[in-house]
Structure formats: structure tokens, C-alpha cells
Amino acid sequence: MKILALTDIHSAYQKANEIISKESPDVLIIGGDLTNVGTMKEAEDALKSFQKFNPRLLCLAGNMDLPQHDDLYDRLGISLNACGVILEHIGFFGVSSAPISPLHTPYEITEKEISVRIHKGYKQVQHTAKKILVSHAPPYGTKVDIIHSGIHVGSTAVREFIEEHNPDVVICGHIHESRGQDIIENTRIVNCGTAKQGNYVIVEILGEKIEITNLQHFSYSL
Description:
With about 220 residues, the chain is of the alpha/beta class. It has a single domain (about 1-215), classed as 4-Layer Sandwich (Purple Acid Phosphatase, chain A, domain 2). Helices cover about 25% and strands about 30% of the residues.
């Protein structure tokens, strides 16, 4: 299974569509910040354009989306927020939003609520052979949650879940400047970076083998 993960699109829908068309994945994951405080119609139109290239779409909202976007994703049957989805032998589950911060962005929740949502989704996929957590916010205290000042700003709840349950892969975004990879015990963590700047991640699962084929950067046609 070839999985394409995009986060932090921030309304750059044409760029996202070019990446999706180029990669032709088996599964497309949108890991939050599809919009910049966009309307419900804007979000729905964007997702429908993505599905023309790839109908197997899973999605959650980021801190610069609206909480109501989660309702849209539920209605479209593509949500990963507090949900588990099994495709073949792989369990996908996730959590929208980001921890409460001094920035007061549109969609922030407590660490307690982040934990509740992750565990709710995990219960639906915990018996699968492979498990992938999609969290808009990266885990705290890693290489992928550091802002320009050098401070770690990731989610403690995501970190605690990883240490307790060891999912195979964690796909995240949110902290644009910390695009990259890290590992906690046996869990591989990848911050996709911002798709608006052409960044994305490919995760390939072949039997027991998981490959994250480096972080990709796509140059767009004008």
C-alpha cells in the first residue's frame, strides 16, 4: 500500500492536486490545516477535487481549520478524528486540532481531549497488524516539534500515547519548521512539513515492511 500524506495545505489546493496526481497513491491522508479558516463549502470543494484523483481519502482538521470541518469530514465518511478506519490490514486513527497555545488559533483543545480522541480511535483498530496514528500536532519533545526559537511545542498527550501503545507510524504536521523524522522506541514519526511549499511524505507498506521514502518536495508548474 502506497500512502501519500499531506499536511498544512493552507488553501493551496492546486498545488495539492498536482502532488496527488503525480504520486497516484492507494490512500491519501490529509493531516490537518486543509484551509486557512476556510468555509465549509471551500473545504468540501477541495476534498472533492482531491477525490477525483484518489477516492480513498482520510482526513482530519488542523488548528487553522474550523471545528465544524470535523462535522463535514464525518458526513463525507472520511474522518479520522476520534475514529478508526481499517483498510486491508492497516488501522488508521487520529486526532484533529492542536494543543491550546498563546496564539489562540481557531481550533485548539486540551491535552486531555487530545488523549480521549486518540484512544477512542485506537480502540477501533487496536487488533490490526499495522497501526498508523495521524495527529495534526506532533509529539512533544522530539525533532519534529521545535519552533524557530528552539522550544518544543508538541502534544504531551500524543507523546504519552506513543510511549504506551507504540503505533508503527505517526504522521503529523503543524510545526512547519520541523519537517523531518524521529523515532520513539519502535514508532517512526514523520512531520510532513507544509504542502503549500511542496512538501509531502510517502509511506509504503509491503507486508511487514514499512518504508518512509524520504520527505519529498514537489516543484509546481506555473
